[in-house]
């Protein structure tokens, strides 16, 4: 079973890129972030025609998450628990082929310090609380998406340039490490512990051409799923396609 994540950076504007990648990569399940589309504007007809069911949590300008699947999807919940006043579309959960799939788009947090960083850390705390609950279920769980965190210096080109950025500040990296320490497995690092692997390249300064990237899209696997991990990778070439997202799709494969 192949599970992927892709910050599509506008699902309608980059629909052709998404459909081309789906046809070529043939993932079974896909978590999308940054739909940038209200609920009624999600391109469900095109997604269905490509062979996928879908659930999504849209938002007019930014944010927005979706889960696409060749299997049936049973929605578990949308919106991260812990703050009923938070209306940003950043989180959705569903059961897919006996795996609980949690698709997330963690806040960026910039400029930092400031209220956006505070919101990011509070959101992180809510995610950590929910993650602890998920582990108690003792079932296969994947928490996947754009975390907007580079966990270590290996995950960022020229880390000294990022020390004050909300994606790399010590308190943000600490929040990520505390989350993983609950008992989650970082799938990419499990299989590639020392390799330089990026999932995002900025549009500016020829970042993709220079491979000046970041690893900010992550798969965290519960013990019941981590034991089934067989492969993982980044479809880096998609970042080089015309009118593409600044992220590349990332994927894992798990045994049945």
UniProtKB/TrEMBL annotation:
Its EC number is 3.1.11.2. Probably binds two magnesium or manganese ions per subunit. The keyword Manganese applies. The keyword Metal-binding applies. The record marks 217 as: Important for catalytic activity. GO terms for biological process: DNA repair. Pfam families: Exo_endo_phos. It is an enzyme of class 3 (hydrolase). Its cofactor is Mn(2+); Mg(2+). SUPFAM superfamilies: DNase I-like (SSF56219). Residues 4-247 form the Endonuclease/exonuclease/phosphatase domain. It comes from the Bacteria. The record marks 247 as: Interaction with DNA substrate. GO terms for molecular function: DNA binding; double-stranded DNA 3'-5' DNA exonuclease activity; endonuclease activity; metal ion binding. Keywords: Hydrolase, Magnesium, Manganese, Metal-binding. Transmembrane segments: none annotated. The active site is at 105, 146 (proton donor/acceptor), 247 (proton acceptor). The record marks 148 as: Transition state stabilizer. Mg(2+) binds at residues 7, 34, 146, 148, 246-247. NCBIfam families: exoDNase_III, xth. Belongs to the DNA repair enzymes AP/ExoA family. This is Exodeoxyribonuclease III. It comes from Flavobacterium zepuense. The lineage of its organism: Bacteria, Pseudomonadati, Bacteroidota, Flavobacteriia, Flavobacteriales.
């Amino acid at each position: 079973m192949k599970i992927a994540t892709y910050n599509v950076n506008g699902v309608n504007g980059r629909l052709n890129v998404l459909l081309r990648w789906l046809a070529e990569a043939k993932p079974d399940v896909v978590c999308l972030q940054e739909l940038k589309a209200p609920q009624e504007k999600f391109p469900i007809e095109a997604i269905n025609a490509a062979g996928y069911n879908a659930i999504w949590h849209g938002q007019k300008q930014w944010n927005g998450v979706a889960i696409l699947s060749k299997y049936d999807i049973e929605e578990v919940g949308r919106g991260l628990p812990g703050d009923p006043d938070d209306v940003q579309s950043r989180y959705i959960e569903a059961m897919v082929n006996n795996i609980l799939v949690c698709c997330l788009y963690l806040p960026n947090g910039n400029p930092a310090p400031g209220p956006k960083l505070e919101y990011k850390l509070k959101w992180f705390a809510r995610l950590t609380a929910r993650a602890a609950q998920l582990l108690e279920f003792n079932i296969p769980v994947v928490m996947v998406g754009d975390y907007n965190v580079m966990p270590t210096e290996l995950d960022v080109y020229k880390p000294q340039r990022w020390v004050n950025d909300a994606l790399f500040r010590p308190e943000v990296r600490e929040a990520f490490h505390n989350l993983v320490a609950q008992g989650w497995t970082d799938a990419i690092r499990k299989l590639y512990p020392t390799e330089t692997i990026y999932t995002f390249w900025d549009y500016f300064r020829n970042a993709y051409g220079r491979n000046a990237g970041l690893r900010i899209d992550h798969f965290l696997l519960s013990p019941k799923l981590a034991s089934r991990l067989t492969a993982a990778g980044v479809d880096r070439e998609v970042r080089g396609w015309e009118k593409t997202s600044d992220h590349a799709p990332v994927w894992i494969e798990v045994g049945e």
